[in-house]
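ok new one. same drill as before - structure tokens go in, u give me an amino acid for every spot. 271 of them this time. try not to just spam alanines like last time pls lmao
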């Protein structure tokens, strides 16, 4: 196994080369957080995402998930938090992800998840894990549009039913562990109607919204939302009383944003 590091002003992209010549990518950011992958490629194939352009190659084993942490530690990186937010849908490699989760917890690490919520029965199981944060990647509040963005995702209504049933029994303190991710794509999901509906969903669930800014990717036709529009949507949500977090400086980098990780990046590295 070989590890290659691409450092970009506090953002470390770690590429691991395995014996079958496949690579996986992890990201170390914010000084103490490691974003790990759960698959090589991704079967969900979100239309805005570079990670799933070629579909699923294979699941990662439990050891391969854990090794992303151990290799980063050996490289001297400080890690207190693990985020299952790299390449792949963690619910589609559920048994290995769940086993890795408990091992990470045994090591004293805080573990959070980003998920599309598919498949639904695994989403229900994930909600009940003793995690340190869970973000549901919604990205659209209109059924047909979400199907365009996330072709193999669950329906919005089914997701919100399961999410809402879980949240209704939680204290306000516990609810702070949960959020909705909404990747703002210019002229795709940023209309007044959609933002108003997003605000209503967040109100009903009493969770915050992680408003992500789309990073343009070569070969994918979507456009980055201009700063003015991004701020406008943020202010609209805040006006509705929604707690909103914005893309941090790491997520706005070319290789740090949602959907920008890719398994073929080694072809662009000088090894």
């Amino acid at each position: 196994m070989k590890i290659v590091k691409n450092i970009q002003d506090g953002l470390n992209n770690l590429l691991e080369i395995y014996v079958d010549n496949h690579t996986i990518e992890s990201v170390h950011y914010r000084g103490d957080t490691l974003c790990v992958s759960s698959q090589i490629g991704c079967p969900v194939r979100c239309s805005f995402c570079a990670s799933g352009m070629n579909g699923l190659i294979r699941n990662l084993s439990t050891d391969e998930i854990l090794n992303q942490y151990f290799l980063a530690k050996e490289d001297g990186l400080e890690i207190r938090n693990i985020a299952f937010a790299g390449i792949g849908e963690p619910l589609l490699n559920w048994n290995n992800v769940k086993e890795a989760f408990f091992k990470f917890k045994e090591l004293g690490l805080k573990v959070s998840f980003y998920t599309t919520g598919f498949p639904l029965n695994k989403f229900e199981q994930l909600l009940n894990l003793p995690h340190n944060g869970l973000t549901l990647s919604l990205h659209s509040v209109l059924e047909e549009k979400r199907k365009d963005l996330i072709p193999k995702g669950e329906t919005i209504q089914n997701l919100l039913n399961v999410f809402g049933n879980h949240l209704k029994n939680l204290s306000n303190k516990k609810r702070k562990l949960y959020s909705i991710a909404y990747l703002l794509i210019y002229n795709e999901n940023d209309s007044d109607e959609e933002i108003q509906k997003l605000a209503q969903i967040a109100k009903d669930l009493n969770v915050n919204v992680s408003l992500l800014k789309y990073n343009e990717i070569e070969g994918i036709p979507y456009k980055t939302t201009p700063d003015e529009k991004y701020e406008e949507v943020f202010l609209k949500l805040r006006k509705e009383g929604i707690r909103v977090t914005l893309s941090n400086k790491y997520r706005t980098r070319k290789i740090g944003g949602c959907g920008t990780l890719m398994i073929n990046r080694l072809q662009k590295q000088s090894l």
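The first strand starts at residue 2 and ends at 8. and btw Helices lie at 62-74, 94-106, 120-127, 143-149, 156-167, 172-175, 192-205, 227-239.
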